[in-house]
Amino acid sequence: MISQTQINHAADILSGGGVIAYPTESSFGLGCVADNLDALNRILQIKKRPPEKGLIILVSDIEQAKRYIQPLTSTELKQITLPRERATTWLIPKTDKVLFELGGEHPKLAVRVTQHPVARALCDAINAPLVSTSCNRAGEEAMLDACAIKAKMGDELDLIVAGNVGGQSASQIIDLESGQVLRS
Are 135 and 142 in contact (CB under 8 A)? Predict the structure, then answer.
């Protein structure tokens, strides 16, 4: 397990505008603080991903996403926070506080209440949403270990956080309003 000292170091890098790779439920993710435009642009450049596509944010508590999403009903809140066997990303109507580079051309923002211990600890340490997009170049397989990341893109990152991925497939994506499953 990763130490609190390592989490604090990663949080300092994130808070300073850095870009990191860190383990999630299914693969390593590339992350930054959700409202840092320079860091978002770095992630898009590293991935070779167009900003129109948008990115996912992870939170340890849905309150961390409050300024980025429209208010939730008690039913929606319960649905989002209910523990699930598989990581679930929700598409939630976004506010005008969401940078284009984060939300893309979509009217909704992709939000996941993460259960991964390292990702949760990072969100808690920065007390903010953490951008999460698979650690890979567009069109390539997501990377599952720190050594592969270091060899392929280590010089483009400020830190690679140690840890194990959760062993799940990519999160399912569900539209909160319609209930439509967009990725199962």
Answer: yes
Helical pair 4-15 and 117-126, crossing angle rounded to 10 deg: 50
Q: Which amino acid is present at 9?
A: H
Domains of the chain with bracketed CATH: 4-183 (3.90.870.10)
Q: In what order do the strands lie in the sheet with 172-175?
A: 159-160, 20-23, 28-31, 130-134, 56-59, 108-113, 88-93, 172-175, 181-183
**pLDDT mean for each 10 residues of the chain (184 residues):** 93 98 96 97 97 97 97 96 91 97 97 96 97 95 94 96 89 94 90
Residue the block writes with tokens 């397990």 = 1
Which runs of consecutive H residues, i.e. helices, occur in the chain? 4-15, 37-47, 74-81, 100-103, 117-126, 146-153
User: 10 pairs with which residues across the strands?
Assistant: none
CA distance 18 to 31: 9
